[in-house]
Amino acid sequence: MIKKILLAVLLIPTPGLAADVMYVSDQLRITLRTGQGNQHRIIKTISSGTHLEIMEMTDDYARVKTSDGTEGWVRTQYLMDEPVAREKLAAAEQKVAESSAQMAELKEQLAKLQTDRNALKKSNAELSSNKQGLEKRMAHLEEVSTRPIQLDKENKRLKEANVSLENELQLKNQENQVLKDKSDREWFVIGAAVLLGGIILGLIFPKLRFKKRGSWDL
After folding, report:
1. Is 213 exposed, middle or buried, given 0-12, 13-18 or 19+ CB atoms closer than 10 A?
2. 23 in Cβ contact with 16 (< 8 Å)
């Protein structure tokens, strides 16, 4: 009895505070009456597990409000602070269903992430291949771009070598001309000496013959 009184005091609604909530116990049905006692008219029957809002509580009865707004009195022995096992089971089943749905959604997201990951890996491989191709083309372009510079250097070197050869050839021509002039002079001197010797012999030879004939005549 003291326990019920304490429970009633604790469950007395306080103005300005939210109303307490209790549940119909594991009974098939209870009656909601207009007052405290079986002599009062039955408003409706309430099934087990129904959610009730406590408006007022006495030792044996509690004034409650149903979810549709109907108010009346029920015996406190049929009320409990927690949902009945059936409602707990339903709530647990709902949580399991929600968890299953979340799990399915997570699996779907995981599958999508794996697909995206595979696509990224493929894209990365293609990008790597394209990068290697671009690097090869860049190296080829750099090689091609350096060819004109090399050709220009080679052309300058050949021009300088050509100028050097032309100077050397000109110098050789001058030397040959000098040698030719010297040879012409030497041949001229030789020819002149031969001609002079011939003239001298031509003048001396007849006299030698004349002397010989004169000596024969004696």
Report:
1. exposed
2. no
- Cα 19 to its chain centre, rounded Å, is 59
CB-based contacts of 26, cutoff 8 Å, min separation 6 = 48, 84, 85, 86
- Whether 195 maps to a domain, the answer reads no
Instruction: Count up the domains in the chain and report the number.
Output: 2
Whole-number Å distance between alpha carbons of 61 and 32 = 10
Q: Is 37 within a domain? A: yes
Q: Are 64 and 33 in contact (CB under 8 A)?
A: no
CB 108 within 8 A of CB 102: no
The span from the CA of 75 to the CA of 31, in Å, is: 9
* Tens of pLDDT, residues 197-214: 778 777 776 666 655 555
Q: Is 125 exposed, middle or buried (0-12, 13-18, 19+ CB in 10 A)?
A: exposed
pTM: 0.32
Assess if residue 162 is contained within a domain: yes
Q: What is the domain extent for residue 117?
A: 84-184
| Residue pair 102/54 in contact by the 8 Å Cβ criterion | no
